[in-house]
Amino acid sequence: xxxxxxxxxxxxxxxxxxxxxxxxxxxxxxxxxxxxxxxxxxxxxxxxxxxxxxxxxxxxxxxxxxxxxxxxxxxxxxxxxxxxxxxxxxxxxxxxxxxxxxxxxxxxxxxxxxxxxxxxxxxxxxxxxxxxxxxxxxxxxxxxxxxxxxxxxxxxxxxxxxxxxxxxxxxxxxxxxxxxxxxxxxxxxxxxxxxxxxxxxxxxxxxxxxxxxxxxxxxxxxxxxxxxxxxxxxxxxxxxxxxxxxxxxxxxxxxxxxxxxxxxxxxxxxxxxxxxxxxxxxxxxxxxxxxxxxxxxxxxxxxxxxxxxxxxxxx
Amino acid sequence: xxxxxxxxxxxxxxxxxxxxxxxxxxxxxxxxxxxxxxxxxxxxxxxxxxxxxxxxxxxxxxxxxxxxxxxxxxxxxxxxxxxxxxxxxxxxxxxxxxxxxxxxxxxxxxxxxxxxxxxxxxxxxxxxxxxxxxxxxxxxxxxxxxxxxxxxxxxxxxxxxxxxxxxxxxxxxxxxxxxxxxxxxxxxxxxxxxxxxxxxxxxxxxxxxxxxxxxxxxxxxxxxxxxxxxxxxxxxxxxxxxxxxxxxxxxxxxxxxxxxxxxxxxxxxxxxxxxxxxxxxxxxxxxxxxxxxxxxxxxxxxxxxxxxxxxxxxxxxxxxxxxxxxxxxxxxxxxxxxxxxxxxxxxxxxx
Lengths: 315, 351
Fold this sequence. Notes:
The complex is a heterodimer. In chain A, helix 1 runs antiparallel to helix 14 and helix 7 (about 145-160) crosses helix 9. By secondary structure, chain A is an all-alpha fold. Chain A is built from 14 helices and no strands. By secondary structure, chain B is mostly helical. In chain B, helix 1 packs across helix 13 (about 315-345), helix 5 runs parallel beside helix 9 (about 220-235) and helix 5 packs across helix 12. Chains A and B meet through helix 1, helix 6, helix 7, helix 9 and helix 11 of A and helix 6, helix 7, helix 11, helix 12 and helix 13 of B.
């Protein structure tokens, strides 16, 4: 246990310089390339006096280092400031947008894995067969079509022409959302995500099936089912879980395209709106906040590996 | 016995040349039918792009040559009532000059109008792949869009490869403080989800082709950096590098003329994978209005227009952009796969 504690402390300590770097990157990116916030805030008709007043209010008349200090202080005190466009506190913006994003993204993530896993295992087992080659060709073509085309055509076909789903919309009730508004975006996103996931998992399965232990298992007369499900599957789960861990931080920003197309009031759409409005506090806060989430999730995944696979040595 | 060695009859000393890596790769690549076919398709696309860039085809893609939303030729022209044309009445004109207050000036206006040169353009009823809502030829747009989208993808991949290779080479070769610093930089870029990093850069850099190239290049170098670094760590203590050092090769010469050629196949494979990713990213950025400017056309801006056209039943722009993109991206990815298998069989399965 002490090993684990020491590991956790070291990993958390290592996050400090990375996070520091993320803050520096965001700060200087917006400071030197982002244009003058006072002019963006003041609008086209602002007088020089008004601009000067805004600069003073934001602390923009101070030196760079003082501004950086103010920025760090606001981050450490969890005071993200207010959106320039709506004057809504950035923290409440997160709290109100995140549920919608999770309502759509979690089913997508789960369905992707649940569908890709059996397909990948099956085609890997029948490597080189007609089924394998057909699925590989289909996934190659499916991968080359833009995500946009899936959404445009899917929304038109299933929502507009066939009328199976509402074209877009969102409600306040989680159950209405899950039952009525989420299915079409989830369906389309799963169609898009399935091709790359299947190919990736197939390569993981193939890697494992070429290993010596599989030959040994077959040589001692185990049934194909035992070999595939007890030996290959369990070993292939390691890279698969790593991959899911890598995909997890993306869940929080959501698929912004889906949120834009289906008018889902989620975090991804909010970020895009912020980019279009040059709403810097929101973009900066989301970037720093997601960097923290990404690092924490990576740490949790690493620790989980230790729990699942005793061979993993924490270093 | 005196053996007379005749110059002409001497058996030439055969020097066994071992096959070079590029030669061996080409031999493997040639035997891959699918890869070879895809390479031909990609080369054909590249030729089309060069011709389009020089103004040979699709130069006048902005000219409104057809009627609005003209259908593709094989569908035939739309019936007149569908376009909403009102027939000119054929009856005799009623003479209104007695009551028309403007009547005295018609002659003067006609004379003045005659001084300007007007050109009667006949707008085509149908075009090979139809027209968009302004009557621009979709085929020309698709070709021009191919030029822009592929150009952005390739240039961004070059920028990302340049950054990734340089930083990776330094991190791997020097290690120590330089390596630590570059690893820190890598961690910082990796900590931020890719699309968010692209958005943050797009928010501050504005729009345009050059900007998209810069944004994608500056955010997309991390994977390549990691691999080049690993290769350089592997190579830096090999004997050939040691020997080069012993005969006085400088640090730069060891990095760029000794090690780099030996890892260039890895870089090439990675770069070709980047091109596909960046083309897809450009399409999405352009669709969202964060990509190429409004005076340019790319597959992304075509898809953005196609969305509203589809609801009205004008599907041809959507199909044209999708088919061009799918054909190029499929051919390019399969070529990249074949290239990877040919250059570095160890990388097989890495996707």
